[in-house]
Amino acid sequence: MIWLAGAVTHGNARGVLWLIAITVDLVVSRRNWPVPGMRRPSISPWGMANSRHLPERHEQLLLIALGETVVSIGLTYAHHPATLPATTALTITFLSAVLMWKIYYYRAGQLLADAVAMSSNRAAAGRVAGAAHLLLVLGIIAAAAGSEVVLARPDGRSHPAWLAVILGGPALFLIGRIRLEQVVFNRIATRRLVGIAALVLLAPPLSFAPPLFAAIAAAVVLLGVALADARRRVGRPPEPPSPSM
């Protein structure tokens, strides 16, 4: 009901309602979605008879979010003059979407189903993977909102709220990706932590620069993470999953 209420409202009220809905979903998912007046099921809703079902749905959800980002910014671009800053913003948005897909899919996203199948606790693995994908999608949505800002106001000084979505979206995406890697490989990837740190450290100086510069900086950080992934793969055999649970 909270999601529907947000869908029929506008402006800041929609953002507040959807933020509440996300919080409620996160809290109740930790308690296996209890229903008042009903006994809690003995089998966790995160339990999977088929280890590939949920990972495939997660992957599809991520693709939809990335696709909607490109479509949204493309429609916005069509209603603005085709200036050089606007065209650059469109190009950066598409490049960032490609890089986020590449970062997601590199090994952990590719092997999630296999890791779930090998897990000794599929319900726990499914729950953590679901939370990780929620962070990934929220990061993509925030980055898309940042792209809208860049396209509408590419010049001038950046406001803190604009930087929060332009740089915070990719940072939130990388946090979700770190959580996913913990599920699949039981480790924390240092190169993603470096990427998050770079986004945080870039925020203060970029507050004096146009929003377009912030979008370019975020894309460069994502490119660096993707290149670090590619470098790690060179000369090594494909790494098998080693689930943490």
What descriptive keywords fit this protein?
245 residues, mainly alpha, 9 helices, globular
Please characterize this protein's 3D structure.
The structure is a single chain. With 245 residues, this protein is mostly helical. Helices cover 74% and strands 0% of the residues. The model has no long low-confidence stretch (mean pLDDT 82).
List the helices and strands and how they pair.
Layout (H helix, E strand, L loop, with lengths): L1 H6 L4 H19 L22 H26 L5 H35 L3 H31 L7 H7 L1 H18 L4 H17 L4 H23 L12
Helix pairs in contact: 3-4, 3-5, 4-5, 4-7, 4-9, 5-6, 5-7, 7-8, 8-9
Percentage of β-strand residues:
under 5%
Oligomer: single chain
Task: Sketch the major β-sheet.
Answer: none
Point out poorly predicted stretches.
none
Estimate the helix proportion, in percent: over 70%
Individual helix count? 9
What would the average pLDDT be, to the nearest integer?
Answer: 82
Overall shape: it is globular
Distance separating the two termini: 34 Å
Class computed from helices, strands and strand pairing: mainly alpha
Q: What would you say about this model in short?
A:
This protein is mainly alpha-helical and 245 residues long.
